Amino acid sequence: MATAYAPGLRVAPRTTHRARRLLPIQGEVMVEVGQLVAAEQVVAQTLMPGDLLPVNLARLLAVPPAEVPSCMLKRQGEPVERGEKLARTKGIFGMFKTEFTAPVAGTLESISAVTGQVIIRGAPLPLQVKAYLAGTVVELLAAEGCTVEADVALVQGIFGVGGEAYGVVRMACRHHEQELTEDLVTPAMKGAIIVGGARMTERAIEKARTFGAAAIVSGGMDDQDLKTLLGYDLGVAVTGSEAIGLTVIITEGFGAIAMAERTFKLLAQHEGMPAAVNGTTQIRAGVIRPEIVIPLSAGRPNSGAERARTGGVLDIGKAARIIRDPLFGLIGSVAALPSEPQLLASGSKARVLDVRLASGDLVRVPRANVELIEE
Predict the structure, then answer these.
(1) CA 42 from centre of chain
(2) I need a labelling partner for 6 at 20 to 30 A (CA). Which of 95, 104, 151, 309 fits?
(3) What is the pTM of this model?
(4) Mean confidence (pLDDT) of the chain
(5) 3-class secondary structure, 263
(6) CA distance 109 to 96
(7) What is the C-alpha separation between 277 and 216, in angstroms, rounded?
(8) Between 359 and 221, whose confidence is greater?
(9) CA-wise closest residue to 182 among 199, 161, 160
(10) Are residues 199 and 91 in the same domain?
């Protein structure tokens, strides 16, 4: 029988992880190959072009557009300061002149005698890229960035919002089936990555944000709570740019779903250790998973301890999560892989597999309805 594959979430006690850190435009790379870097160390920086501000000068000065260039006190390409006189009309007999001062600092980008508009480009905006991983620089990309490598404990989630964040791991729940409620979030968790068990409540998230937590991670959450958190419905898109004050990651799915026990135990083993999280999620082509990354070898060269991976190969005994109703979120292991397509309750035929649930029950589901939990 041909090898079968399924998408998978990684939950690895130890693996070699690489993070490519790139600038959106060319700039300065500030590290060298072989250099040890901290997670929040700046590895590359650049200046982004400032915002454009169009100004209808013809209307503001009450002159025809063709006269705007002759009214200018600054030439195209020259710098301007906020409050500096930018243009002045000739007035009548040298009197009753109208002046215009620059509303922002920047550069005079263009002057149009056709539209009567001038465009001011704001001051350049500094942009820095951090290492994200505490590890070793293994590759440089000239004027673009670098690649950092480290041995880490890695947990990938189903969904997240918010970008990169850093903090120490703090367990808020005692077991993986405990709901993460507001009373479990304390001021001592400021700057931490809070780990819950089952569903995290909207009030718990809000309290974590109020206390200044870096991130909050749990098994599930209600989709209505997500809408309340964001203030809008989130469509099918790339997340990670939400300015909500912290990063939120769910490891299993939406609803009252407990975190997988081995995921919970792995995070609990590293309580108090510094970690990096990234809530960026993309569920279209080129899947991107939110992740919690806990460096194990910070300050030491990579040990190369990653085990050989089977890359999503379905096999007997592999841990799997069902990702479709009515068994959504249940976790078990692959018990059988029938080779022939089977007739489903819907009347259609599909390739299936048998999953032995934690309860001991054996269920048969389409292969498209499962996701591997990779080590």
Answers:
(1) 18
(2) 151
(3) 0.76
(4) 87
(5) helix
(6) 28
(7) 10
(8) 221
(9) 199
(10) no
